[in-house]
């Protein structure tokens, strides 16, 4: 399966794909509890991160536009929590307050050294899910290994954490418990 780096012209498609994929996600429901506003709020939320990712990381999509992986390159000069919070303030909507709080809390658990952060990986529908996930992650792993830095993410389900272990990820500590949200399961892949 072929994958490619998304460009700014792909941002609407990527945001639609992510909004569809995460509409019923337990974490997203906690942050965006009003069903009637959730899809539009998600599109806007993912656009904020998508624009940051295109400048400070990347978005990888598969050849059929059926899956997307959005990642950020965290280091003290490229991207920090403050950069993201500033973007939230510039684009502020009441829907983002809860997510801004969550993202701020999660950043405390990130590796303290430069790393890639998988912000989101989504495959709406599961017909070819593992093939797409594998292709997207392999592309990121090539970049990660070349950069020689770890790759970090949080999973919303323990089953996803177990699945990630088959792709070279290790448990990165205890489940993360942030008040008002379901547990998250951190994973880490060291460069090969």
Can you offer a commentary on this structure?
This protein is an alpha+beta fold and about 190 residues long. It has a single domain, classed as Aminopeptidase (3-Layer(aba) Sandwich), CATH 3.40.630.30. Helix content is about 45%, strand content about 20%. It contains 7 helices and 7 strands. A 7-stranded mixed beta sheet has the order 1-2-3-4-5-7-6, sandwiched between helices. Helix 1 crosses helix 3. The chain starts with a strand and ends with a strand.
Question: What topology emerges from the helices and strands here?
Answer:
Layout: E1 3-5, H1 11-22, H2 26-31, H3 35-56, E2 57-62, E3 68-74, H4 81-90, H5 96-107, E4 115-122, H6 129-147, E5 151-155, H7 158-165, E6 170-171, E7 185-189
Helix pairs in contact: 1-3
């Amino acid at each position: 399966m072929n994958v490619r780096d998304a460009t700014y012209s792909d941002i609407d498609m990527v945001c639609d794909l992510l909004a569809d994929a995460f509409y019923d996600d337990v974490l997203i429901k906690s942050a965006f509890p009003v069903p009637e506003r959730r899809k539009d709020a998600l599109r806007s939320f993912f656009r904020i991160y998508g624009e940051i990712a295109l400048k400070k990381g990347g978005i990888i999509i598969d050849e059929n536009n059926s899956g997307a992986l959005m990642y950020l390159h965290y280091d003290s000069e490229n991207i920090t929590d403050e950069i993201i919070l500033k973007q939230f303030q510039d684009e502020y909507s009441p829907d983002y307050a809860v997510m801004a709080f969550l993202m701020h809390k999660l950043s405390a658990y990130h590796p303290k050294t430069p790393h890639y952060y998988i912000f989101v990986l989504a495959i709406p529908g599961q017909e070819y899910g593992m093939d797409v996930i594998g292709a997207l992650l392999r592309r990121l792993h090539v970049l990660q290994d070349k950069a020689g830095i770890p790759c970090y993410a949080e999973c919303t389900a323990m089953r996803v954490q177990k699945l990630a272990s088959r792709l070279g990820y290790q448990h990165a500590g205890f489940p993360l418990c942030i008040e008002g949200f379901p547990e998250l399961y951190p994973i880490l892949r060291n460069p090969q």
